[in-house]
Amino acid sequence: MTFHMHTHAAVDGSDYTSISMSPLTFYAGSTDGAQQCLNIGILDDDDAVEGEETFAVILATSDSDVMIDINVTVVAITDNEGKYLRKTAN
């Protein structure tokens, strides 16, 4: 099984660190529902105030014996600077 990442509003290298497309291996004898983890680094963009940004991780396989229940997962990055903004009345 392979995966790749697709940028939506989040920018690779500024908002997250993509990981290279490589195979995810499920070994013989793996049970239904077996899981693999992908560790994707989320980057702090310092003082930039941005809304929620997203990117997708897409799974694929050419093996007709393998069933993927959910092949696209959208990851949402929530801005951590915006919560510190203060609005003042004029």
Name the beta content range. Answer: 25-35%
Radius of gyration: 18 Å
- H and E string: EEEEE
Cα distance, first to last residue? Answer: 57 Å
* pLDDT < 50 stretches: 84-90
Find the count of extended strands (DSSP E, 2+ residues): 5
Structural class: mainly beta
Domains (count): 1
Mean pLDDT: 78
In which range does the helix fraction lie?
under 10%
Strand order of the largest sheet: 1-4-5
Described by strand count, sense and barrel closure, the largest sheet is: 3 strands, antiparallel
Tell me, what's the shape?
A: elongated
Total helices: the number is 0
Description:
There is one protein chain. By secondary structure, this protein is mainly β. It has one domain. 0% of the residues lie in helices and 27% in strands. The chain is built from no helices and 5 strands. It has strands at residues 2-7, 16-17, 41-42, 53-60, 72-77. It has a 3-stranded antiparallel sheet with strand order 1-4-5, with no helix packed on it.
Note the topology.
Elements: E1 2-7, E2 16-17, E3 41-42, E4 53-60, E5 72-77
Antiparallel strand pairs: 1-4, 2-3, 4-5
